[in-house]
TrEMBL record:
InterPro entries: LOG, LOG_fam, LOG_family_nucleotidases. Residues 1-11 have a biased composition (Basic and acidic residues). One of its GO terms (biological process) is cytokinin biosynthetic process. It comes from Sphaerisporangium siamense. Transmembrane segments: none annotated. Keywords: Cytokinin biosynthesis, Hydrolase. The lineage of its organism: Bacteria, Bacillati, Actinomycetota, Actinomycetes, Streptosporangiales. NCBIfam families: Rossman fold protein, TIGR00730 family. This is Cytokinin riboside 5'-monophosphate phosphoribohydrolase. Residues 1-21 are annotated as: Disordered. It comes from the Bacteria. Belongs to the LOG family. Pfam families: Lysine_decarbox. One of its GO terms (cellular component) is cytosol. Its EC number is 3.2.2.n1.
Amino acid sequence: MERTSREERRQGPSLVRGKMVPRTTYDERLLDRRGSSEWLHMDPWRVLRIQAEFVEGFGQLADLPRAVTVFGSARTPGDDPDYELGERLGKTLARAGYAVITGGGPGCMEAANKGAREAGGISVGLGIELPFEQKLNDYVDLGIEFRYFFVRKTMFVKYSEAFVVLPGGFGTLDELFEALTLVQTRKITKFPVVLMGTEYWGGLMDWINGTLLSTGKISADDPKLIHVTDDPDEAVRHIVAGHQEAAQLAAEASAQAATEADVQAAAERGGT
Ligand SMILES: CC(C)=CCNc1ncnc2c1ncn2[C@@H]1O[C@H](COP(=O)(O)O)[C@@H](O)[C@H]1O
């Protein structure tokens, strides 16, 4: 089979090569307000494409069992200790019965997908169209390529029950703080967030516990939303304990609601 060396880009379900590869991405074109206003008149139609991306994502992921999303640097080489940590994390999550979702890219994402796959777990990659050549890593068993970052981010949150964050850069920080904001504002509840790498994240945690707390930018309880460890087993124990606590609270709340309904019904009977 002839191997191609032409430039290649995945765009949602489509693949384009060579001169068919556009100079910009869907995200870029959506967000760019400069230039001819003709672009703006097309936005209503873009909504349909965005909608289709949600439909595709929801459809593909609906049957996924409970899952954890792993974030981390796209640039971590295969011989880096963080890569090995990502692999061990993927394995540990898979052995605990969690499907592992990543951004489907290289580096730490690949490591977590590899670990999950090698442990016989479900390995999911939610990729993103980027302006340079990029494909889902080889360890992804269920992959979806998204055109729009914000659609993809919805999928990470909707289809996982916890986030684990390996050392990473801007992309990783964006994902971490989006999750923390969602938990802090109770848009999502009981959602464990674990940082892997005490040394790497130490400076950030010091700043959160120091500057952010002392200037009143966060509440006293907010740092407790983040669990930091070097040990994948501890990460998984923290996640499982968080889910057990959430299940117990939900059971107690529904028992309480049932009792209140009984009392109300009895009072109504007594009153008639
Ligand atoms: C070598 C390179 C830059 C490849 C980029 N390829 C990527 N493929 C998939 N997801 C990505 C990529 N880059 C960033 N991300 C997203 O942002 C995070 C990593 O960003 P960073 O490397 O920490 O800032 C990942 O968790 C992922 O969800």
